[in-house]
TrEMBL record:
The chain crosses the membrane at residues 12-30, 61-79, 85-107, 119-140, 152-179. The keyword Disulfide bond does not apply. Belongs to the BioY family. GO terms for molecular function: biotin transmembrane transporter activity. Keywords: Membrane, Transmembrane, Transmembrane helix. InterPro entries: BioY. This is Biotin transporter BioY. GO terms for cellular component: plasma membrane.
């Protein structure tokens, strides 16, 4: 008799993935455009809850499904969708979000600095992941501005200010996400 190896996914996990997919779509639409090709959205907050709720494996499936669905044309990103979205300056953040469950798994397993204090340990891990996400997003944004948009004006100041504003808002969001995460995990398990 044939039994597929690890091919089965339980109903509860499938429901979590479906609900989380919907939450990612809704959170991406709650966006405030800021100057110079950027958005501040609640999506960052929800991305940081993917790993603790779904784990690295299913969280990666979810984020990959989200990215592919948007690139195939579903208008699920902050400003739409479709294959041309790769030329938007914010697409680097979507790439980083897709890698986020793996970042979280690696960082959390290696972070032993505050192992005796769960909140500080989780917060530090989340901040390290946030820095990684912003570095990928910022590098992609600079690449697109230089090579695709071809802005010839000096954008360093504007880009730095909007990126710093975006990062600082995310720092505050991640603090509250960490508080929420610990409560959610306590209720789930």
């Amino acid at each position: 008799m044939y039994q597929p190896m690890n091919a089965r996914i339980n109903t509860q996990t499938m429901c979590k993935i479906g609900i989380y997919f919907a939450l990612l779509v809704v959170s991406s639409k709650v966006a405030i455009p800021i100057p110079f090709y950027d958005y501040i959205s609640l999506q960052t907050a929800f991305i940081f809850l993917v790993y603790p709720i779904l784990g690295a494996k299913y969280g990666s499936w979810l984020t990959f499904l989200y990215l592919v669905s948007g690139l195939l044309g579903l208008p699920i990103f902050a400003s739409g969708g479709g294959p041309s979205y790769i030329f938007k300056t914010t697409f680097g953040f979507l790439i980083a979000f897709t890698l986020m469950p793996f970042f979280a798994a690696l960082v959390r397993k290696s972070n032993k600095l505050f192992s005796h204090h769960r909140f500080l340990n989780t917060l530090l891990s989340n901040y390290v992941c946030l820095i990684i996400v912003h570095l990928i997003g910022f590098a992609y944004k600079c690449f697109i501005i230089k090579f695709y948009i071809g802005d010839i004006i000096n954008v360093t100041g504007i880009l730095g200010i909007t990126s710093l504003l975006d990062f600082l808002i995310d720092v505050g969001l991640i603090f509250f996400v960490t508080l929420s995460e610990l409560q959610i995990i306590k209720r789930i398990h």
